[in-house]
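Recap from last week: sequence in, structure out.
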Amino acid sequence: MVDLSFALHGRTLPRDHRLLLARALAEELPALRDDPRVAVIPVRLVSGDADPALLSARSRLVVRVPRGRAAELQALAGRTLRVGDSVLTLGDAQPRELLPHATLYAHFVDAGDADEIGFIDAIDRQLAAMGVPCHPVCGREQRVQGPAQPLHGYSLMLHGLRARDSLRMLELGLGEHRLMGCGVFVPHKSAAAVGD
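Predicted structure tokens:
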């Protein structure tokens, strides 16, 4: 697996853009719908309450793909995506290798209808089934637009990962809706973001 980081040219993006962005990408490359390994890391937006949100000069679209599909995805450079009422043009993609970190963070992991205790119990079971010992820390409860109905979930930090387990979590993620950026982990240096 490799991350492809596309420069973004545009002004705004809806705050809740996960589903809209996944659909826009799948319109350009329909095969993305059928590959559960492909994941999108949520786009960083300027903080605040305005909707649509402004893109910062450093905003990037990062798509995590199997190495064998990288060239196919790099062909998106120069294409224009309509994401709700926003228009984005993708710049060149820079490949970035996945590197293990002891602490990983996911902005949103789908919890179904589970409360925080049920969510952590389910995460503990999934991690045990994968043979990944670590300390999960549940973050802020959230709702995002889903394919059929709103998705309910939490941010999640995994702390104390061994290098090989960290790489597995970066590659596999947790849960469904990876093209929407759900259950997709990124390296993190502190526990502070778990409430974000």
